[in-house]
Amino acid sequence: MSECPNCPECGSEYAYEDRGLFVCPECAHEWSAAAGGDEEQQKVWRDAHGNVLADGDTVTVIKDLKIKGSSAVVKVGTKVKNIRLVDGDHDIDCKIPGIGAMGLKSEFVKKG
């Protein structure tokens, strides 16, 4: 059996490894086995004005956006509620009223 580190949250010695992550059965905290405690290097998403975005935020579109393969357009000022941040070219997954599920780039939205 390999030696697992103690949980960084509660200090439990019963942590175990599961699919590349260490898991604490007492407090349910999970951390990366490869990072070795470098949890500060998480990706930060920012809007067009430099404000930090988080899952569940409401954003406003700041530019007319043509929808590829359609004649529809997302108009300036469209509010999008409950966004989800993802890695990739279009880093915001959301549902736009009247259009449906869509991916947006954070450079074309502002928080609020």
Automatic annotation (TrEMBL):
InterPro entries attached to this UniProt entry: YjdM (IPR004624), YjdM_C (IPR013988), YjdM_N (IPR013987)
Pfam families (UniProt xref): YjdM, Zn_Ribbon_YjdM
Q: Could you tell me which residue ranges the Protein YjdM N-terminal domain spans?
A: 4-32
What the entry lists under Gene3D superfamilies is as follows: 2.20.25.10, SH3 Domains
Outline the extent of the Protein YjdM C-terminal domain.
46-111
Q: Which domain of life is it from?
A: Bacteria
Query: What are the transmembrane regions?
Result: none
Family, per the entry? Answer: Belongs to the YjdM family.
Identification of the protein by name = Alkylphosphonate utilization protein
Q: Which organism is it from?
A: Geothermobacter hydrogeniphilus
